[in-house]
Request: fold
Amino acid sequence: MRKVGRPKAQDSAFDRSLALKKSALDLLSRDTAGKVTIKDIGREANVTTAMIYYYFEDKDDLLRSAIEYAIDNSFEHFDKLSQDIEHPAALIHEWLRTHEELVEPIRKMMKLNLDYKMGKDRTDRTDQAIQRFYDSERTILLDCVKRGIRLGIFTEVDPESIWVIVSTFLDGAMVRSGIVDGFDVRKAIVVFEALLWDRLGYNSKSF
Amino acid sequence: MRKVGRPKAQDSAFDRSLALKKSALDLLSRDTAGKVTIKDIGREANVTTAMIYYYFEDKDDLLRSAIEYAIDNSFEHFDKLSQDIEHPAALIHEWLRTHEELVEPIRKMMKLNLDYKMGKDRTDRTDQAIQRFYDSERTILLDCVKRGIRLGIFTEVDPESIWVIVSTFLDGAMVRSGIVDGFDVRKAIVVFEALLWDRLGYNSKSF
DNA sequence: GTCTATAAAAGGATAGAC
DNA sequence: GTCTATCCTTTTATAGAC
Reply:
C-alpha cells in the first residue's frame, strides 16, 4: 500500500463524491447493502474511509445518495427520449428499445429501489425521488397514448390501462432478466411489442 | 430476559429449523441480507444464536435454506392450482388471481431471488431450486395455452409468446407493488387480463 | 481536503456446562 | 438439544496531524 507524498485537492472535474456514489451503486447492485462495507466502497472509488465521512454524513447517507443518483440518471435518459421523439408510436418503440439496451442499469436501479423501499431506513427525500421518477414515466406514456389516439393512429383505448400494462411489463422484464438465467429480454420485449401494436391497432411494419 | 428453567427438547411438531427459516424469510424480505443478523433471526424465532449453528452450518446456509423454503412454498401453491383446474381459461384466471392474492409472499420470494442471484454466494442447490420453479411455471402456462388452442377456445397464437408475456407481466406487478406506493395490483392485473382474453380471442363474460 | 491511526460497537462463530 | 458466556474479527465512525 504505497502512499503518494502529499494529497492533492481534487479539482471538480473528478468529483470524489460522485465517484463514491458510482462505486456504491455498483457494489450495491451486485450485493446487498450491509454486506457492502464503506471500506469496499472506498477501495472501489479510491477514497479513504475517513473521506467518506467528509463527503457524507454516514453510510446510510451515502447509500441513499447513490440511489438518488441512479434514479436521476434514468430519469434524464427517459426525459430526453420524450423530448426528442414526436411520433407516439416511435416514442413507444424507442421506450421499449431503451429498456432492452439499458437492462443492466435499470435493473440495478430497480433492485436498489426495492431494497430501499422494503427496508426501514427511509427518508422523504429519497421516497420523493422514486415517486418523481415513476410519475414522470406515467405522464410521458399517458401523453403519448393520448396523442396517438387524437392523431388517429391508435385505436380508442384507455390510456391509463396501456400505461399500466406497458410499464409493469417492462419492470417485469428487467427483474426477470436478473433472476432467471437465460431469460431473453430482447425476445420478451419483441413479442410484447407485437401484442401492444395489435391492441393499439397500429400497423408497425415500419419498425 | 427471563429464562425458563431447563430446556425441553422440541418435538417435531414445532420444528425449530422451520421456525428459523420462516423468521429469516420474514426479516430478509423486510431488509437486506447482511443487515439482518443471526441474532435478529434468532430473536424473531425464539432460538438462541448457538442453536442456529446446531441446525445450520453457518449464516449463509440458513439464508439459502430460507430462500429454498420460500420457493418450495410458491411451487406447491401453483402446482396444486394446475392440478385442481382443468379448464385452460379458468386456470389462467386463477393464476392471475392467485398472484393478486399472494402479492406479499411472492414479492418476498422474488426479492430474495434477486438478492441471491445478484449476490455472489451461490450454490448449485439453490440455483436449481429457482430454476425448477420457473421451469414449472413455464410448463404449466405453456400446456395450458396449448390445450386451449386444441380445444378451440383460444385463437391460434404462439404459446411461448403468451407465456413470456403473462409471466413477465406478473413479475412486474409483484415488484412494482413493492416499489411504487399506491400501485394497484388488482387493477393492473384486471386490465392485463382483459388484454389477454382479447389476444386469445376468448370471451371472458363468465368471469 | 486528505491521510493514518484508533476507538467503539457489532457481528459471526464456538466452548462447555447441563 | 439447549443455553450462557465469550472470543475474535469486521465494521463503523472519529481524532488529529499535515
Notes: Residues 1-5 of chain B have pLDDT under 50 and may be disordered.
